[in-house]
Amino acid sequence: MLQNGGGMIQRWFDAWVLLLWIVALAVQECWPVGAIQLTDINVPEIVDLRATVTLACSYDLQNQKLHSVKWYKGNREFFRYAPAIIPPLRTFPVEGVQLASDGHQCNAFVCRIRLTRLERHSGGEYRCEISGDAPQFELANSSRNMTVEVLPQHDPIISGLGATYHPGETLEANCTSDLSSLGTRLHFFVNDKPVPIEYLQPPHETTLDNDSYLLRYRTLEMHLPVDRLFPKGVDHAKLNIKCIAAIDSVRTTAGRETATTVTVQSHHWWIVMGGSIHSGGHRSRVLPWSQIAPLLSLLIITSLLNLAPILTPISRLLSWR
């Protein structure tokens, strides 16, 4: 009898297991559970030593519950978000990693953290890892590298330019970049056109040792003849002089730039002002007679003095005859 009763219980147990398995399959067909996915990770490639940096990863749980989000520097975990555990946030000390006190925002879709007080050791590989809840506990992760440097904080400086130039003169100017731990490329532009290399001197670099960084700044010198810019007959024009400082390694950051304006005038501009060198040129404007008369007198006297060597022999010849 005991054996028969035990066999009956075993058959009932097997039937229940089979029924639960069938129900589980039906539930899975109605609510399919796919593999969780880490859809995006945002870790800046190069950051400034003085900046506060945001790291972020986004994920798709595919109808699963989130078990945890973990951030690693190298192989060392420094941040964990587990919503089912109290407290849900935990941090762990790692060299070069300093979390901002209010610098986290994590939920079932995205996890953002902020790093502050960066140093040289803050650079390295950062990895985001997400895991689903029981019973699968699926994992997904992705990583990016970040480098900490001293980047320029100010626009380049243009020096050495005058306010007004005349034909035959030369535009001489220097462009100096801000301090940086990375090499800086300098470019001169005149009216948005790059200055040809034959009018530029090789860049000069100065270095300064500052703790763990070797800082540097560069100076580019330009010697550009005014006659190279305009055809003969141009009376007056404005030149826009621009210098752009860019860093080779930073592809996502626009270069810093500085611009200034100088004037080019012909020598007779003081008598007749105006012209039509610009597409929207203005009509000529004649100066008042009170300003022209002294200049004309000076020109007449100068012309007579220049003709004196010629007029003297002629007057003697006429008097002899």
TrEMBL record:
PROSITE patterns on file: IG_LIKE (PS50835)
Keyword Signal tagged: yes
Domain named Ig-like: residues: 32-147
Cross-referenced InterPro entries: Ig-like_dom, Ig-like_dom_sf, Ig-like_fold
Keywords annotated in UniProt: Signal
Signal sequence coordinates: 1-26
Protein name per the record: Ig-like domain-containing protein
Native species: Aedes albopictus (Asian tiger mosquito)
Lineage: Eukaryota, Metazoa, Ecdysozoa, Arthropoda, Hexapoda
